[in-house]
Amino acid sequence: MPESNPGYSELISPPGGAEPGVHCASCFYRLKGLSASGVCPECGKPYTPETVFRVASFPSMAALLLKFGWPFIIAIVAAGAYVPNRSGVAVLIGLVFVIAVLMNTPIQLNLLIRKHIPSHLRPSWVKGVMVLGRITYVTVGVITLLTIISPLLLLAACLFMR
Question: Which of 17-26, 48-57, 135-144 has the lowest mean pLDDT?
Fold first, then answer.
């Protein structure tokens, strides 16, 4: 750190440096290069390092494909292994795939929205998507629990009670 610039350590990010995701929590004004504490030049509200909103860098395409696509990858591999044999396992894998997609997609969307859009700046339709996503994965989870796991537990209990 240069001695000639004593205020350098108080900067949120060095001029021209990294961390482009520091914004005012009130108006989302980009605070890059401003002092760590101060008043937002856009809205006039005070900010500190604890109160600023830090936007996570957006995931790469490969990361998005992995987050959203893992059920598809598993289904393709499983289909290649079991569908040609026309076994009952193929039907089970198809069911697990549908459940995984219905639960994974809204969860991943909610996580992306929470990381990249401050709650007070989310349009009402985004909040609706988040609520619909929660309803979807909770409903699918409950249905899965009631229709698949509960009978298996009952069957296991019956077999071990003999």
Answer: 17-26
